[in-house]
Amino acid sequence: MAINNKIAAVLLVVYTVVAAANVAAELQRFDHHPTKPDGSLDIMVVGDWGRRGLYNQSDVAFQMGKMGEKLDVDFIVSTGDNFYDDGLIDDEDPLFVESFSQVYTAASLQKQWYSVLGNHDYRGNVLAQLSPVLTQRDSKWLCLRSFIVNSGIVEFFFVDTTPFQDKYFTDDDHKYDWRGVLPREEYLSNVLKEVEMALEESSATWKIVIGHHTIFSAGHHGNTQELVDQLLPILEAKEVDLYINGHDHCLQHISIPNSQIQFLTSGAGSKAWRGDINEWDTNQMKFYYDGQGFMTLRITEVEINVAFYDVFGKILHEWSTKKYTHMDS
Ligand SMILES: *[C@@H]1O[C@H](CO)[C@@H](O)[C@H](O)[C@H]1NC(C)=O
Q1: Which atom belonging to ligand 1 lies closest to the Cα atom of 54?
Q2: Substitution candidate for ligand 1 out of 49, 51, 249, 273 with most atoms within 8 A of CB
Q3: Distances in Å between the alpha carbon of 124 and those of 52, 80, 93, 208?
Q4: Cβ proximity of 59 and 292 under 8 Å
C-alpha cells in the first residue's frame, strides 16, 4: 500500500511536469478601453528609436507630441529596438532616461507605452527591459515578450519575434541574451500556441498583431522567412486585420492579393535613410518611405484609419477599411 502510494505520487509529479511542458500558458492580458465618448481608440506606433535623441529621434518625438495632442491618443506602441546599439546594460542604465524619458517629453505622450523587444534589445540585458524597475523609473514604460492588450472593439496581440530568426543563433559577431528563451524549440512552439489560442478566443471586431520583425518588407532586411512559414499561416487562419512591425527603418504599407492582412511597417523612429529598397510588385506596395516618422491608427467599431507622418508632421500616406458586423445588418 505504502509502495503504491509512493508510485502514485511519483506518477502525479511526472504527469504534472509533462502537462506543464505541453500546455502553453495563457498570454498576459491588459485591458485598455477607449475613454472618448464616441468609443473610438487612437494610438500611435513608433519603432527602432532609442538613440539619445539623435538621428532625428527628437524631431519624430516632437511631431508625435503634437499629433498625440491633436488626436488625444489613448496609448503608444513601440515595435521594438528600443535601445541602440545593444539594449540596456541593467535596469539602472542611464540610456533608459536619455533615450526614452528625456526624448518623449510632450504631455500627450505621457500615456501608457506598450513595447516589444527587438533584436538589438536582445543584445543587451533583456531582463532589464522587462523589469518592473523601469516602470518605477518611468510609469509609462511597459515591455513584455508576448502579451495582449484588449481594447474591446480591438485586440492587440504582441509577439516576441526575435527568437524566431535562425541567424541570431549562429551570429558570431554579436551576443544575444537568450535567458527565458531556451530551449528554443519549446519557446517558439509555446508562443505560436499561445497566440493561436488567444486569436481563436478573441471576439473583438478587429485583431491586430504586433511584432518587431517584418513578415513582408521591401526594406533592407526584407521578408522574415521564419515568420512567413510559422506565424503567417496562423494570422491568416484567424483572420487578423493588420500585422504591424518595425525592424526595417522605414514606413511601409504592403497589401498582398488573397490575404486580408495589411502589412504595416513603422520602424522609422530614428536612424533611417538607408536607401536600399528591394523591388516589389507596385500593385502590392501601397506606400514606402525610407525616412523618419511614425504611424497613427484610429479605430472604431466599423472602421480603421491608418496614417503615416514624416519628421515635419506631414501626412505621407493614409489608408482605411470598414467592417460591418452582424449587429449593423
Ligand atoms: C532628418 O530629417 C530630415 C528631413 O527629413 C532629413 O533631410 C535629414 O537627413 C534627417 N537627418 C538624419 C540625421 O537622418
Answers
A1: 13
A2: 273
A3: 16, 13, 11, 28
A4: yes
Q: Please report which residue ranges of 140-293 form alpha helices under DSSP H.
A: 184-201, 225-230, 232-237
Q: Which atom of ligand 1 lies nearest, measured to the CA of 270?
A: 14
User: Which residue type, as a one-letter code, is found at position 29?
Assistant: R
Contact 309, 296 (CB under 8 A): yes
In a domain, 25, yes or no: yes
Which of the following is catalytic: 32, 212, 213, 221? 221
Ligand 1 center from residue 310 Cα (angstroms): 10
In-domain check, residue 147: yes
CB 95 within 8 A of CB 88: yes
The CATH code of the domain that includes 152 is 3.60.21.10
Q: Is 221 a catalytic residue?
A: yes
The mean per-residue pLDDT over the stretch 252-280 comes to: 95
Would the pLDDT of 232 be above 90?
yes
Please name the residue whose Cα sits nearest to atom 9 of ligand 1.
Answer: 273
With 90 as the cut, is the pLDDT of residue 17 above it?
no
Domain limits for position 271: 2-320
pTM for this predicted structure: 0.92
Q: What is the mean pLDDT of residues 99-116?
A: 98
pLDDT at residue 329, rounded to an integer: 44
pLDDT digits (tens, 9 = 90+) for 62-80: 999 999 999 999 999 999 9
In the structure, which protein residues have their CB atom closer than 6 angstroms to any atom of ligand 1? 55-56, 273, 291-292, 311
